[in-house]
Amino acid sequence: MQIKEILQALPSLSISDRLKIAESALQLVIQEKHSLTKDQQKRQLTLAAMTAIADYAPSSELNIFSELEGEDFCNDPDEDFYNSGN
Question: Which residues make Cβ contacts (< 8 Å) with residue 81, sequence separation at least 6?
Fold first, then answer.
């Protein structure tokens, strides 16, 4: 069975079956990860880091909320958000 066929079949499966498939796939990935040499692990981490660089670019969606850093998130000046439980 090809990846395309598997992905097309997933929506017709029950949630339970999809979870079983996801769990099995994750277990296979974990087993493979544990069987890698240190050199292979280092190469995989390098590739993952290179892939993630675009996610951290200034215009990326990951950084979209950084414009709000330091701003209050409570809009009601009459409400003492931090002491409302006292």
Answer: 74
